[in-house]
Prior knowledge:
heterodimer; A: globular; B: mainly alpha; 2 domains
Amino acid sequence: MDQLMVGFMTIMEPMNFLSVFVGVLGGMIIGAMPGLTAPMGVALLIPFTYGMQPVPAITMLVSLYCGATFGGSIAAILVHAPGTPAAAATTFDGYPLAQKGQAGKALGMACISSALGGLFSVVVLILLAPVLAEIAIKFGPPEYFALAVFGLSMISSLGSRSVVKNLLGGTIGVFIACVGMDSISGFSRYDFGLTHLMDGISFIPVMIGLFAATEVFRQAEIGIRKIVVDRKISGLLPTWKEIKSVKTTLVRSSLIGTFIGILPAEGGTVASFIGYNEAKRFSKTPEKFGTGCLEGIAGPECANNAATGGAMIPTMALGIPGSGTTAVILGALLVHGMRPGPLLFLQHTNVVYAVFIGMFLANLMFLGLGLGGAKIFSQILRVPNYVLSPIILVLCVVGTYALHNNMADVWIMLVCGLIGYKMKAYGFAAAPIVLGLVLGELIEISLRRSLIVFDNNPFVFFTRPWSLAFIILTVVGLCMPLITSWIENRGQNNKEK
Amino acid sequence: MALVLMVIFIILYAMSFSFQSSGVVKSHTTAAFFPRVVLLVAMFLTLIMIIQSIRQGPDAAKKKMDKAVVKRVALTMACAAGFGLGVVYLGTLVSIALFIVATMVVWGVESKRVIIITALLTPLLIYLVFNQILLVQLPSGILI
């Protein structure tokens, strides 16, 4: 409790409070623009935080994460194009309601649901993360290896539809982490005679390249695009009665979103679709879904923002990202000299609790901004992509250079942007590669340390309870897409019969 | 794509034999141990991709990009590379303005007013935010 009070006092300092505000505002703007995603926004914001203290820097990034997750619903409701992938399910009922002339009500419901889901998940984060960190502090290298492999196995459902491509993307990420000096033997690997590569490849240029530069090249493919916002936003906020009518959906989606968020690598997109499906399944009027029903907005919006706090739990307590965006936040923590994991709670207690309170405040802040400024945010959609894309690439170059004041990072970023663009064309997603990159070092170090400590015995991973549990979960996680597709095929065959 | 990846992974695997080693007997202590494990996993997954693509046949659904689109994407990439080089030789602010003009022209933006305003305002804002407010050093070129 004392730590929470200290965190609260820290966040109330003008600079930190301002960071939360800037983060939320920036997040809502980025989220509102189709094509700009939360991980891209966080990756682009990192360079702005280089000169900041850790508390305002990290709270600004997590606030952007919360703001962008909600901001995605603005475009989803007004123009039927989700601002972020996590808002895709919101289009199903948000847009039809806007077509009925009730865009204000749709945005109001999205905002309230998002804020409630987000606030719930932050409470769970505050309660659960320290407990998890206390358990994890007892983990040895075998447990960490099994846990990191479990985190990596969960990427099978991230971004792209192909399980194999996701896993291969993650493996490529792990391989990129191998480049440079081997921390155990001290010998260099895959440096191609370049001194810069001997230090390894930094996360930030790869993340900015894969998330932001790739998007610029993709926008070049689309060409000039202007979004026409013809929907007038009336001030019709949902009534108290309407909010009460979705309360069960809100509770259910908060739980779903937080749980999905906690699962390593599972983010808001998965949570929002499950939130929508479950809202429909338990609804008394499922036939109204898809026609502009409030439950159809509350379900996914509450779930995707609940996933933000949930995703921060494994990120902060275990050092295993809970989503693509938290993988970028994990990279930012490292840039600011903090290694996520159980020791973070001992070494940087003040920062951890300030970030938690900052995240809580961010959810309250976008509630106010969203309800009061929906009209203004809808105008952001009018900014054409031919103005935005070159500016994004400029930020990519300047931000990457500022990391080490080195042009080599800029070239790495541009090459990653190019590779990311080509890989996207072949159905690979960026998030698995970034997750693999972030987890790569942990996997290697813990595997090799386990083998060194336990005299080259590979069975050590099966004899320790926690590591065995993670290995079983890994196997289940890897088999899950196969089982799901088998069940779906069986169901379809039965229907055909 | 899968075949290209497979070739790359095989080359990288072969390269791991050239890594220096301290001569310790146990394989897991050498620098090559982990990359080899990762590359074997990558090769296995790529093999699955190859088998999948053989079973599915040629990808008929894959749309071919219009020549104009390919040209626009390639020129945008060239502009980005030119921007990187420009930063080294001309300095950041001049390169930003030139990059924005070049990209907008490549994309077919017709309004000269939009091009000029964006090209002038962006470097100014970048300078103010990064150099003056955040005190982050901008890359300087040979000329500026």
